[in-house]
Amino acid sequence: MLLSVLIPAYNEINNIDTLLEKVQAVPVTKEIIIVDDGSTDGTRERLNSYRSIPNIQVIFHEQNQGKGAAIRTAIQHMTGDIAIVQDADLEYEPQDYPALIQPIIEGKEKVVYGSRFLKPENRHSYYSFYIGGQVVTLLTNILFNQRLTDEPTCYKVFEANFLRSIPLECTRFEFCPEVTAKVAKRGIRIRELPISYYPRSIAEGKKISWLDGIEAIWVLLKYRIVK
């Protein structure tokens, strides 16, 4: 099966080469779809050098639209059987791909999330982010009858045709709660597997803020009500 690795990127000049090297090193058949979301730090220019590599597609947004918009663009271009979302930073470990995609390859699941909390040795970032993530996860479980430990995780893996069938509207970080809500409303209990996690600081380029947590709560409530 072909794995589509969907990478939204914005101002990641310090990480993009290392990330792509790590993704390419994973021993699975894959295509890599990078959507540069209007970077201004040289990331766009650097990505131009990857356009000649056969399994890499590079797509440019002329203006910054947000992570959700970049993922939606990547979905339109993917051709694989399985899709995984990969942030362009180095917080997550691509060597976790084989374990995450295996339940989908076996036909046991349509959706798998990688949980940072199922691996006890993982460190976590700012306490406010930790608490915010736990609140969002708890609310998800209450509203959508899930048993998740880590709803805001980056590593969300889908049977590709199933992901294509979800009508997404997100533009920013609300991709996570929107896709989770819409998966759950189709009666799917999302399976989690442990993953590695290496948090970075705001000074190192972490872009999410507490306001995104408030937005995630609003999105979850909205999609609990909206059909």
TrEMBL record:
Pfam families reported in the protein's UniProt record: Glycos_transf_2 (PF00535)
Statement: the UniProt record of this protein carries the keyword Transferase: yes
UniProt-recorded Gene Ontology molecular function terms: transferase activity
Family matches, as CDD domains: DPM_DPG-synthase_like
Keyword field contains Transferase: yes
InterPro entries: Glyco_trans_2-like, Glycosyltransferase_2, Nucleotide-diphossugar_trans
Keywords on record: Transferase
All residue ranges annotated as the Glycosyltransferase 2-like domain in the record: 4-131
Protein name: Glycosyltransferase family 2 protein
